[in-house]
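Trying the structure run again after the queue cleared.
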Amino acid sequence: MKKLLALLLVSVLSVSILAGCGGGSGGVPEVPQISENRVINVWSFTPEIPDAINRYKEFNPSFDWEINVTVINDQDGAYEMALESALVAGGSAAPDMYTAEQAFVMKFTQGGFSSFALPYSYMIDDLDSKIAAAQVAQYAVDVGTRNGQIVGMRFQETGSCLIYRRSIAIDTWGTDDPEEIAKITGPGWDQFLLAAADLQAKGYSIVSGDEDIYKVLKDGAEKGWLVDGKIHIDPVRESLFELAEIMQNNDYWNGSRPWNESWYADMGDNGIRPVFAFLGPAWLINYVMVDNVGDTYGDWAVTMPPVPWTWGGTWVMGNKDIDSLEKRQAIGQLIEWITLDTSETGFQYFFANGTLYDEPGAKDTVASKVVMEKSDGTLSLLGGQNMFDYFIPAAATARADHWTEHDRYIDDWFIDQVRQFYIGNKTKEQAIADFRQKITDELGFE
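Done. Tokens:
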């Protein structure tokens, strides 16, 4: 509670500071043409964007700006809170260019700290046509839009798929064809439960644990946790109580939790029962599963999930207080190369093909559909399947109109109460009442 109160106090402080910044696009100040300070302060929660910028400088020796990097791991919200404080404090050490992850991006693009973000139109020419040409998923554009202006874009696409074991599919249904598996496991949760029953009869769990289901289910909600300043429990999200109870009572999952040893063990067929599927974006395959699948390497494939959803992603922003037009243009060059350049020398092409460095790296899905369509998405972990064949349509169906800036906390509180229900510690009614009270106590909403 103390942490959340501190966040709210900083939000109030930022609003009072920004109130004096003037009108226009989020109070963007007038700045001199030439910068006397040729340093760009870059803040991020991983080294991914700073590393990309360093590579850009290698490719473009005339880009003569010094890059001062601050990377803070976001465990327990450390980066999020530090970024808030740095933006409010301002000055020469403040971030000129910074990133935000899905868990808290809405706060920096549309919520309490969004007024610090400089509209891209101040940094990048012909912005709308470049976004259209890149064919970026609309939900990702919407997340980065404040009052009709783009203030954040991302390079990585995180529309998510069903990632399943081929051998288990063949043993259960006689096929591992992605099109057939999509029909067997969805669309919708009724079909998913029928598939779970088939798998359980064969001695398999359909997923590893409850959050594997919840992360997908919550994105099917029509509305977010807060509507017109009031707590709203969408019927789709409320249905997790019944869905989780069915999964628990029928041994349809292994009872693990993400980022725990049991979750990793299930990827390598070392859990209490073999697990048929994980649900997630390409980064889950290339940065998590790859190190944990063990002997199941090559036995995986991807297909469409039971419902559209997305997990993660990094949005890139510039500070409205950048101290010169020259620096704005320089940061615009970096942001455009990272988020909108669709050429074979753009960051997204390198990222999609794992060719940013001399040594081959992990391939990943990217924001631009155009780039993915001309890239090689085949993975040996997936038995040679081209993952882009399914991650491209997954991105097209994902949405974010139900996200709020408080989801990071509310989601955790909700799943905690669902667990209390399905293990028998609380009735559904008590769990919901306690969930609502938690939001009121911590965030002040009724």
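The CA atoms of residues 79 and 347 lie 24 Å apart. Worth checking whether this holds up in the mutant runs.
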